[in-house]
Each structure stands twice: as structure tokens, then as C-alpha cells.
Amino acid sequence: MKIRLDKYLADMTAAARSEVKKQIAKGLVKVDGQTVRRPEAKVDTKESIVCLEGTQISYTSFVYYMMNKPSGVVSATQDKSEKTVLSLMEAPRKDLFPAGRLDKDTEGLLLLTNDGGFAHRILSPKKHVDKIYYAKIEGPVTEADVDVFAEGMDIGEKRRTLPGKLKILFSGEISEIELTIQEGKFHQVKRMFQAIGKRVLYLKRIQMGNLRLDETLKPGEYRELTEEEKEKLC
């Protein structure tokens, strides 16, 4: 695929298109060993060798990251008042976005990509991709609650939720559970527990499909998915 040189560099660096044009005009960019000063010059994303100040900049069409999202940041590309997940990344691509969202106070597995088709495949309820959460719940969680979740629930929307699989890890004053759902409605896990008169104290997504959160990632850390991990999701 052939694209403009300034787009190529803007896609692959954190620099604005205007800054990239300045770098090109200063003669800091070489294509196949030749200095190029025209931002509109076309380069082949697969064949051309593009160097910025002596460093080769390879072009990757799609990228996929796993992040252990910390509490206190929002799952958005930008926000006027809140810190976003992209602000935790070093020089993120401008076309990167979170595939799905986690609430500001929810932690855990978040995928970031620039592949819209991939995002649709893993987020669409019709694709039946499991999303597994670990949560701490105020008060005892019972087997009766398990049955209610398994039937699908009314959380105040036109349609009931799809059936959820509730697993009790510990039941007590503060219960611990795992919940598997296949949707991503606004505040869904919290609203499901509210519907049975219980409150979520802590929430963390630990798995999507067959992809489990890399527990070596500290909150706020991220890494690219391996080919094997991408295959698990696709």
C-alpha cells in the first residue's frame, strides 16, 4: 500500500502531522537512502525503507496491546477532565483506541488496537465472546443469586441481559465471585448486582474469550499481544 510520507510517519510516531512536515522539510527523513523533503511523497508501507534522523521507522498496519488498566483512568482516547488509558502509554499511535471500555474505577484486562474489525469481533454480543470479571461484593452471595444471573436480568433496559454465569468463590460479609457475561452494557456488572440488592466493592476484568490477563503486568503496564494470543481472540 502506498501512502503519503507525512501520514506514514505520523501513524508510526507520536508527532503531529505538522511536526512531521517540519522534520521532512529539514531533511531529517530518508526514503530508501535518499533524503526526501516533500511530505506528499508516496512511500510503500511494505517495501520502502523510511528513516527519521537515522532510525528506521517500520510501518505496521494493525497493532494490538494488552493493558492492566488501573483504577482512576477512563477508557477513552481523550478526555477534557480525566486521565485516559492512552496517557499511560509511551508515544501511542494516534489511531489507537480501547476495544471496549472499563469503568473509571474498574481494573484489569483492556485491549487497545487500531483494528476496528477486530474490536467488533470481540465486542459484539452476537459473537458470544466471554468476558470474565472478579469482584468483591458487599454481603453474602447465594446459590439463589446464581440462578437469577443464569436466567438473564432486568437492569432497566428494553431487553434483559443475556444469561450470566456467576461463580461464588467465597460468601460472607464481603463475598468474592467470578462473573462471565457476553455483553458490555454501561456499568453492567454493577447494575446486575444492584438488581438483586447488592453492591460491588471492587471489580476487575480478568479474561476475554480465551485470553487471560497477564498477571505480571502491574496496574498501568501494557504489552503487545503475541501471535498466539491474537489467534485466541480471533
UniProtKB/TrEMBL annotation:
InterPro entries xrefs: PsdUridine_s_RsuA/RluB/E/F_cat, PsdUridine_synth_cat_dom_sf, PsdUridine_synth_RsuA/RluA, PsdUridine_synth_RsuA/RluB/E/F, PsdUridine_synth_RsuA/RluB_CS, RsuA_PseudoU_synthase, S4_RNA-bd, S4_RNA-bd_sf
Protein EC: 5.4.99.-
RNA-binding S4 domain sequence ranges: 3-66
Kinase in keyword set: no
Keyword vocabulary terms for this entry: Isomerase, RNA-binding
A UniProt-annotated Pfam family: S4
Record family assignment: Belongs to the pseudouridine synthase RsuA family.
Name listed for the protein in its UniProt record: Pseudouridine synthase
Organism field: Faecalicatena acetigenes
Lineage, uppermost ranks: Bacteria, Bacillati, Bacillota, Clostridia, Lachnospirales
